[in-house]
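#struct-help
A.M.: can someone run this one for me? Single chain, 424 residues.
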Amino acid sequence: MPAKNGVDGTLYSYPNNPRAQLIQIAAQYGGSDVKLCPNFEFGVTNKSPEFTAKFPFGQVPAFESSAGCLNDTMAIASFVGGSDLRGNDEFTRATISQYMNMAETQLFPAACQVLYPCWGLMPNNKNVVNKGHENIKNFMSVLDKHLLDRTYLVGESVTLADLTVAVYMRDLYNMMFDEAKRNTYVNVTRWFTTIINQDEVLRILGTTALCVKPAQFDAKLFQQNNPKPQKNAPKKDQTPKKEAAKKPEPKKEEAKPAAEAPKKEKKAPFSSLPPAKLSMDQFKRLYWNEETPVIMKYFDDTFVDGEWGVWKVEYKYQNELKRTTTTNNLVKGMFQRLESMKKYAFGLMYVFGDAGDQRLAGIWLGRGGDNFFYEDDNWTIDIENFNCTKMDMNKPDEKALWTKFIAGEMDDWEGRQFEKDHIF
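D.P.: on it. Structure tokens below:
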């Protein structure tokens, strides 16, 4: 263990935060005495007046020492890690900072896109997950070439560049990168196992088990973490008031009202159609839990044109889409007004392009052979603003477009890059 360099302090963070773990590892290298705040409660401690007086941004990790307070992962790691981890000359320090920043801005967000659904922290949004995998692949490919003839990312010893990238990559090697994937990035894997098995790293993280089978989206865990509010649930500690018993009043003779015309019962949507082979509930269940080949096999086996239809929709007034927030709200409002249609339809609406130059388009699977939006007057409010085109699933190009939407591979529309998706 290196000699103490005199940096003592308290680290505020929640358990198993990889950013805090990076700081703790850096402290091991720098000989710093960094103690975790034992009674920290995320969402409570960091919002208290005492905490925000020291750390106005209210973020964690946060570090308090006799020298002052710091509120940024890379700044804290550099401070407690000492000069050897930071680099001994200007260019080396700049190169180390480069890898630390790329890990924070490129690797970490992409890893979250892939891992959060497996932890039940976000829905299995295929477009987002696929983007995460693509970004990870690009990052790993560049890194693999860089490490072809290098032991460390920068120089000839461990630096903050190695520690940051390895810590942010750890969950991928633990949960996603099975043997086949590890062999794809053989140079990165060699480097990763070298860094992750350093004594200073092992003291904080322990042994890292390598992935045997890639993790998948856990629908049950997601439901547990995101329970739906019960409709008409009584408020806590609120009991219904009992009405006082009313004394019976003497009956009065009343004139009989004129007979009313019988009310015409409103038919349930699509009640005139025979039962369909494809079950919308089953289709949605597969979409959220299975890979594209499984979803498309079910679709191919059960889809009957006329029982269901696939429709492409494009916003009529694309030139009016100036702000991303407004465009997203337009779709959210539409979905809210279509709530009663959920048993009969599945839809993907995508926003493409940057603010000021956007496109809004999507694809829908709905009941019946005609435009299902017109089955109920309440469903037509928004669709009047879209051009709707029925897709022929027997035409390869139209079937391919439907499949690309389902697979989350719609990267652009009319030359504009994918920005945001909404799933109905």
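A.M.: thanks! The CA atoms of residues 250 and 256 lie 18 Å apart.
D.P.: also worth noting: Confidence is low (pLDDT under 50) at residues 233-245.
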